[in-house]
Task: structure prediction
Amino acid sequence: MNQQNAPLNQRKIAEVGSGKPSNGAGWRAVNQLNQLNQHYFCLLSEKQRLTERGKHDSTNFSIRAAGGRP
Result:
């Protein structure tokens, strides 16, 4: 019984295997896009953080905290 099913199983494995390269390439593209998005949003949030820091004049606060004059 197992010997009769072996050719059929091998054919199914071959069919699944033939779809893997394109599927793998698709997931690679998705992963690269996610990495780019993550990098972009990290840069964007860093820019916003620096902008907010400038609005609140935190440099004067740090000078006062260090014991100097603002």
Q: What stands out?
A: The mean pLDDT is 70. The helical segments are 2-55, 58-65. The chain is about 90% helix and 0% strand. Residues 19 and 58 are 56 Å apart (CA to CA).
